[in-house]
Amino acid sequence: MDPSSQAPYHLAPGSQTVCYLPWLKVLRGAAVRTKIFGDAGRSGEGGRKMRSALLMAIAALAIGAAAMIAPAASEAITLTISSVSVTVGGTTWCSTNLACTNPTWNLSGGIILANPGDSLFLTQTGGAAGYNFDTSEGNLPSCTAATPCATSITINGILIAPGNNVLPNTNLDPGGNNHNEAANYAFYGATAAFNVFTGYADNVHLDACADSSGGVANNCQPDPFAASATDTFIGGGTTAPAGFNETQANHCTSNPPGANDCFDAGVIRIVNAAVEGRQAVPEPSTFLLLGIGIMGLAAWGRLRREL
Question: What angle do CA 121, 125, 131 make, to 5 degrees?
Fold first, then answer.
């Protein structure tokens, strides 16, 4: 039994009183530590070995502590889309909290995309508003090689560098009732937080659906074109325009009139990309601990070579 855990007691009568108190454990631990650091301060091979062991321990503790407090290499970040503005040629469409010629999408104080890959889809809102995002003709002359239309998209106040011209049908729309403009998504641009894709939904113009590739070919719309459980879709169909007699597959209903399933509109898809590979900034204490660890390892290596 460890006598330091005992209450004070006496030896035989007349002998010296010996007191074992709990705090002797503390003194014993201090003595051990004194011996370790004292040995490390000695000259000769024993002292060098002790110093080497101490440096290695300090380096391991510092690097381990830095690893524990360092932020994760990647972290999911909730994305909120609060404003959108799209200009094609001389016409601008925007969210209703901005001032423009065609306020189109009510973002209700901000659309939250909480998970990686969550998407916001913006297209014509349909119904009584009709074809209110027709980016190839809309409020413009048709976008053609003779009258080309440039595209710009601004999201949350950030102008996105353009990567395609899908919204104005790549300036190939000859006008009229026949030319189908459907196109699958093409990458438009990105920020650190989101990726932007543009496509075109057209099940109105009388030619066969022009989206010959993608998730579902020749269905007259980019894919996906509907919200999943975590996506948000702002848009809707409207009635077929007068004079259109739809006969092609996957086109909207023209007879009887009145079904709200017709689209002739650009589509903006905004995808939460603020996750994989996004580095969190380490705290200054992390750098300090890593520095101590690296210096400890360097000193240990030097001392080891001397041994």
Answer: 115
Domain map (residue ranges) of the chain: 3-72+282-306, 75-280
b/e sequence 274-286, b meaning 16+ C-beta within 10 Å: beeeeeeeeeeeb
Q: Which residue(s) pair with 270 in the sheet?
A: 120, 196
**Dihedral over Cα of 233, 96, 272, 171: its sign:** positive
Enter the pTM of the model. 0.67
Q: What are the b/e assignments for 209-221, b being 16+ CB within 10 Å? A: bbbeebebebbbb
Picking from 285, 282, 284, 240, the residue whose alpha carbon sits closest to that of residue 261 is 240
**pLDDT at residue 183 tops 70:** yes
CA 294 – CA 307 distance, rounded (Å) = 20
Q: What is the DSSP letter of 4?
A: G
* Cα dist from 12 to 51, 147, 154, whole Å: 46, 116, 94
Q: What distance lies between CA 158 and its chain's CA centroid? A: 16
Q: When comparing pLDDT for 17 and 70, which is higher?
A: 70
The yes-or-no verdict on residue 176 having pLDDT over 70 is yes
The total number of residues shown for the chain amounts to: 307
- Which backbone phi and psi does 65 adopt, to 5 degrees? -65, -40
Q: Measured at the alpha carbon of residue 238, what is the angle toward residues 235 and 241, in degrees to the nearest 5? A: 140
The least confident of 50-64, 100-114, 181-195 is: 50-64
**pLDDT for the residue 70:** 52
Are the CB atoms for 121 and 233 separated by under 8 Å?
A: yes
Instruction: Please state, in angstroms and rounded to a whole number, the distance separating the CA atoms of residues 75 and 131.
Output: 40
Instruction: Give the residue-averaged pLDDT of 254-277.
Output: 84
φ/ψ of residue 196, rounded to 5:
-125, 130
